[in-house]
Amino acid sequence: KFACNIAFFVLLWYDYCRKQNHNERLLNTMNMKKLQKLYGDVRWSGKKCICGLPISFTRYIVTDSRLITRVGLFNLKEDEVELYRIVDKTAAFPFGQRIVGCGTIKVISKDADTPEKLLKSVKKPREVKRILDELVEEQRNKYYVRGRDMIGATDLGGDECDCNCETHEVE
Fold it and tell me: What Rg do the C-alpha atoms of the chain give, in angstroms?
């Protein structure tokens, strides 16, 4: 009897998960069409997950050229970072998030508004980070930008100065 009960619950759980995956795929295609209208070519979109469930009002959207964070239900707040400005990405996998297949991605950029952006508790963080890596590299190649171009002017080791100031005068 006990084995039959366990088998019954396993079958119910499998059927429930299968239906949820089908419903989730339908919902994702509907949401992606709406996002495509609003933002153009969307490469990835995901929500902040709470206990592994995407029930938050924070959505992360990655297009060809931008990383957009949209927060809110009635009053929306959007923040975006151009992908070519991203300097570094770090993924963190806290135990609580790792259990449910989530992780947090920290993006450091040379953006004036948001130099540091957290993509908190997203599903499949390694895949998201890989997508970001590819798109950042693509955008940098498109605009001929390298990481050193965004750091600022650096001293290249020369002793000469064209400004004729007192501290840099050349003999």
Answer: 23
Per-residue model confidence as pLDDT tens digits over 107-131: 999 988 889 999 999 999 999 999 9
Q: What is the DSSP string of 91-103?
A: EE--HHHHHTTEE
In angstroms, the CA 65 to CA 168 distance is 41
Residue 145 DSSP code = -
Q: Please identify which residue in the block is written with the tokens 């100031």.
A: 165
Q: pTM for this structure?
A: 0.70
Q: Which residues contact 84 (CB under 8 A, 6 or more apart)?
A: 65, 136, 139, 140, 142, 143, 145
Determine the Cα–Cα distance for residues 107 and 105; give it in Å rounded to an integer.
6
Report the alpha-carbon distance of residue 44 to residue 23 in Å, rounded: 19
Provide CB contacts within 8 A for 18, sequence distance 6+. Answer: none
User: Which residue is it, tokens 């119910």?
Assistant: 12
